[in-house]
Amino acid sequence: MNRKVDFKKDFKQLYLPKSSPEIIQVPNMNFIMVEGSGDPNGEEFSRAVEALYSLCYAVRMSYKSKDVPEGYYEYTVFPMEGVWDLVDRTKPSTDKSNYKYTLMIRQPDFLTEQGFQRFLEQVKGKKPNPFLETVRFESMEEGLCCQMLHIGSYDGEPASFARMEAFCAENGYSRTSKLHREIYLSDPRKTKPEKLKTVLRFHAEKSR
Fold this sequence. Notes:
The protein is an alpha+beta fold. It contains 5 helices and 7 strands; from the N terminus they run ααβαββαβαβββ. Strands 1-3-2-6-7-4 form a 6-stranded antiparallel β-barrel. The longest helix is centred in the first third of the chain and has 18 residues, at 43-60.
């Protein structure tokens, strides 16, 4: 096996940014992802997260199986990410029941579509979950983005997004849509709200 890949060391720019806004170019990456809607504090969201992690850990622990993926290398499981939007954009963004989301976790380069399907069938047999019926393996390239590290409660994120938008305006960039990405570096079950660490990111473009 090669040296262990650790996202905190090998992809520091993407996952451990400063707590001040910056512009970054995000490359193409492979993800396992699942979609859902509703309050992230509800049972449906928990099941979506459960489905995602059960698959990701099946890939991570596959070195113990009889059919180890070709090119396998040891790595730290990447943090969960979420792309957030509203079901009905006429409703206020404070209405959490109106949220829709795509949750995802980055995958190592050795995982292929064929390998993903194999792990999916294995997990379905061991840990049935309705979200496993819609989970998918997909490549995504975010491209030019503005990002920063938000420290504190999720409810305090709007202030950080305001800082990011102001930074863009001051430096000749603009936000391209209301969609945004969150990368969860802390476990909310074990971390006090004021100490939560979340990477916030949105698409940006150079102003004309």
